[in-house]
Amino acid sequence: MLYDLIIRDALVIDGSDTPGVRADVAISEGRIQRIGSLSDAGARKEIDAAGRVLAPGFIDVHTHDDTVVVRKPEMLPKISQGVTTVIVGNCGISASPVSLSGNPPDPMNLLGDAAAFVYPRFSDYRAAVENARPAVNVAALIGHTALRSNHMDDLLRSASPEEIAAMREQLRDSLEAGALGLSTGLAYASAFSAETSEVKQLAEELSAFGAIYTTHLRSEFEPVLEAMAEAFDIGRHARSPVIISHMKCAGAGNWGRSPQLLAALEKAAQDHPVGCDCYPYAASSSTLDLKQVTDAFRITITWSTPHPDQGGRDLQEIAADWGLSLLDAARKLQPAGAVYYGMDEGDVERIMSHPLTMIGSDGLPEDPFPHPRLWGAFPRVLGHFSRDKGLFALHTAVHKMTGLSAARFALHERGLIREGYWADLVLFNPQTVRDVADFKDPQRAAQGIDGVWVNGRLSYADGKPQGERQGRFLPRSGSLREGFADAKAPT
Q1: pTM, to two decimals
Q2: Cβ distance 394 to 11 under 8 Å?
Q3: Is residue 373 a contact partner of residue 443, using CB atoms and an 8 Å limit?
Q4: Quick one: CA torsion of 58, 59, 63, 69, rounded to 10 degrees?
Q5: DSSP per residue, 105-141
Q6: Residue 190's CB: how many other CB atoms inside 10 A?
Q7: Partners of residue 425 on adjacent β-strands
Q8: pLDDT tens for residues 418-469?
Q9: Contact criterion met (CB below 8 Å) for 451 and 460
């Protein structure tokens, strides 16, 4: 048989958290056909990997790429770092189902202005992704705040029974159309007033579909353990798996508490499917939240609608120039975005190392001056944390970005290098792979990513996109509970 492609002499790290083996990999019709010593086989094209690592394409489980996958489908920030699949709709904000009557409320404005929200039903969004054919595969969650904005005239209160019923109907319709589950962003003002019972009632829709509940906790600061307990309570009530989004110990007064958070996660995992994701940086990024304005750590402004010239500057410098307090300067900048240097590196490393943790970028593609995680999260784990710091083995790093993520989100026949699986692959040099984007120059492609294949087609090489875009929309393809069966908490 003549294959479409054979990648020869690769160190195949297959995504299963086991060490790599030298092998050839043959690809045809978008799928992995054979793995092993293929000296007897030929192909239309052959690549000599020369011992470089061939891994499953990375799965970014925490993105806000909802609208950019349609409007800027080249997806260079992601494909350039080896990402082949993005999960959108996190933190309670999604592009669909949404029907706006004005400007998108904070933090939905992270996805763009009102013109970006043109998908009143989830099926409309799915069709738009399929028509755009982005460079990466796309799977989607439904945002709680998006649902609230559709049916409530005031987001600073809990929903009425009638409003909850309307939201449940939209959520059910979206799940039927292939959505992965429900996400919340309970820390944001637009959802903070939602009582736990509101979220529980919505989450009741998840069980019949085997769908998942992901949450930006009600607090990542001092009450974080109580916020985690609320999330687990919602999941148990809904009989739905729970993913804690970008788990962290936020705020200087919270530093060093990661062992407590991880102990709570492990305890919950003993009798319920739970996990978390995190990004490999000790700085966060979101809209400029007046409740987080402090002089305890740096805050850098990423964008400001009334003062766009202030993007990239520290809030403290802006306040000094204007002769204002930090809080008054922040008010003057609104609406705006910010990077908060509010975490401890030790906490980040402990959370990232935990076996229940996946990697997600949480990148914000609409930011004019984005957090470098948008372009560098995955190579940073491979280079800085695995190779340079020895935080965990390279095959464990790959597992946290591939096999574990595909299992958690039931991405069928993806996330592993297996015969018959879709050929989402990344070839990289383990000695040179590294993130180049930083906080001063955040929009720079990683080094050491030599080739990226999406559904069997070369999509990125030589530092630029290749050929036609090959991404697909990935509907939920089974019960997401099943993906937790093989990854219990440590005992």
Answers
A1: 0.97
A2: no
A3: no
A4: 80
A5: PTTGGGG-SGGG---SSHHHHHHHHHHH--SSEEEE-
A6: 23
A7: 56, 453
A8: 999 999 999 999 999 999 999 999 999 999 999 999 999 999 999 999 999 9
A9: yes
